[in-house]
Specification:
eight-stranded antiparallel β-sheet; alpha+beta; binds adenosine-5'-diphosphate; disordered C terminus; binds magnesium ion; 16 helices
Length: 465
């Protein structure tokens, strides 16, 4: 600790809406900004917002946003003294965090050692157990021997989940219903994980049925850690969040206190620095919660927490990583009202969420009290086909959940991404659904609902055809 550092110029090692979000926070703090871009992103909104841009390579992420060497060269050439990794890409690479610090720059995140401990899913499970945080029943570490793993799976009871140690964004997860499937899926999952994440390690967990996804937002300065309450992200498609809210309307104040305290304890045990999230599954039926992973970075859904707590998490993480003390006590953090975020992707929900990159013409953005749109768009912007399809996030706040849902519906009526099909109609349908309104949901609810009625977005298809 005792980091006496300052940042004057911040390099943003990401793209899309999060790059714009980081630039905004940096400007608020009075910092200069450098945006690294691939050749496909020279006309991006982030490139336009930043003070300087550095082209680091061709469109393929492996040759640009994932190229640590190119990013470090850009930082040196532009005289940046810190790097913000955003989410995805290199944000949870311990190797990258080390390389940044070894070059004498500040990594806006925890140390490489902390990422090694907590960003690695199987290691984080062990760490959580040591800190007294309940984890999902499963393997003690990675699977080394298929016979031993099968014996364990049989003790836990099928179905079990096979999860990739280096997985993220809902990828690298398999469900085995039987011993036969288990024997077949483990080697498959392992070789796919090796190809996708550069880490073939897999581990197993009991499948918790009808659980909710509840996660705790943390902020640490290497000495102290505070929480900013929880978010619920149970509406998921392919195990990826699509709608997130804060607070969770499903947990009692007593459960909330236990959940937040356990997350703080875990982060304190590793002297956590920066913004981080501890994710749990919450079982309504028993009131039990189980640790699933820690994300050692800013998350996509951080704005719902900002809306109920009145904070700027991205500015805060930059501050503490620059060596400033947290300057926040737990008692000073309060929350009010209810916030909901929905992910607006360039995908057509009427056509099995097929990605539809294209040109944005006649952008219409909802505005007003309790409405925020974090995005990467402008009129005439050409959405490139090379990356994640997230265009922006619509976030609403209101005094309570029902009013937040109503506000979401009216904001969605205004939102128009200039003729591009987006996931917006999905959220209009969800916001008017009885189960969603009653908060009678779980992590598999949305997939079942999508299967039940395939004509849900038919109107939308006519409108956009
Ligand atoms: P997780 O699903 O890992 O718990 P988030 O919901 O915050 O966390 O989603 C982060 C995921 O978004 C990454 O793991 C990655 O799959 C995807 N992603 C990475 N980079 C970007 C980006 N620039 N824009 C949109 N999505 C991204
Ligand atoms: P990622 O790193 O891809 O974000 P997570 O471990 O956070 O992976 O899991 C993503 C989602 O998968 C969870 O939000 C949940 O819906 C589902 N999931 C993960 N583990 C389990 C489990 N043991 N039982 C049931 N669902 C799970
Ligand atoms: Mg996760």
């Amino acid at each position: 600790m005792g980091r006496t550092l300052t940042i004057r110029k911040l390099l943003v090692a990401n793209r899309g809406e999060i790059a714009c979000r980081v630039i905004r926070a940096a400007k608020k703090l009075g910092l200069g900004t450098v945006q690294v871009v691939s050749e496909a992103d020279t006309e991006s909104l982030a490139a336009r917002l930043a003070d300087e841009i550095k082209v680091i390579g061709p469109p393929q992420a492996s040759k640009s946003y994932l190229d640590a060497h190119a990013i470090l060269s850009a930082a040196r050439e532009s005289g940046a003294d810190a790097i913000h990794p955003g989410y995805g890409f290199l944000s949870e690479s311990a190797h990258f965090a080390d390389a940044v610090e070894q070059s004498g720059l500040i990594f806006v995140g925890p140390s490489g050692d902390t990422i090694r401990l907590m960003g690695n899913k199987a290691a984080a499970r062990k760490r959580a157990r040591h800190a007294g945080v309940p984890t999902v029943p499963g393997s003690d570490g990675l699977i080394v021997n298929i016979d031993d793993a099968l014996a364990l799976a049989e003790t836990i009871g099928f179905p079990v989940m096979i999860k990739a140690n280096g997985g993220g964004g809902g990828r690298g997860i398999r469900v085995a219903e039987s011993a036969g499937e288990f024997r077949k899926l483990v080697p498959q999952a392992s070789s796919e994980a090796a190809a996708a994440f550069g880490d073939g390690g897999v581990y197993i967990e009991k499948l918790i049925e009808k659980a909710r996804h509840v996660e705790v937002q943390l902020l640490g300065d290497g000495l102290d850690v505070v929480h900013l309450f929880e978010r619920e992200c149970s509406l998921q498609r392919r195990r990826q969040k699509v709608w997130e809210e804060a607070p969770s309307a499903a947990i009692s104040d007593a459960a909330r206190a236990r959940l937040c305290a356990s997350a703080v304890e875990l982060a304190r045990s590793v002297n956590y620095r920066g913004a981080g999230t501890v994710e749990y599954l919450y079982d309504d039926a028993t009131g039990e919660f189980y640790f699933i992973e820690m994300n050692t970075r800013i998350q996509v859904e951080h704005p719902v927490t900002e809306m109920i707590c009145g904070t700027d998490l991205v500015a805060d993480m930059i501050r503490v990583c620059a060596g400033e003390a947290l300057g926040l006590t737990q008692g000073a953090i309060s929350r009010t009202g209810h916030a909901i975020e929905v992910r607006i992707n360039a995908e057509d929900p009427a056509n099995d969420f097929m990605p539809v990159p294209g040109n944005v013409g006649g952008l219409r953005i909802p505005e007003g009290d309790g409405i925020r749109f974090d995005h990467m768009l402008y009129d005439g912007y050409e959405v490139p086909p090379f990356y994640d399809s997230l265009l922006g996030k619509l976030i609403v706040w209101a005094p309570d959940r029902a009013q937040a849902i109503a506000r979401l519906m009216s904001a969605l009526e205004v939102l128009d991404i200039g003729g591009l099909p987006t996931t917006a109609p999905l959220f209009t349908a969800l916001a008017s659904n009885d189960d969603v309104q009653a908060n009678a949901i779980h992590t598999r609810w949305m997939e079942t609902w999508l299967e039940q009625d395939t004509g849900k977005f038919a109107n939308h298809r006519e409108v956009t055809a």
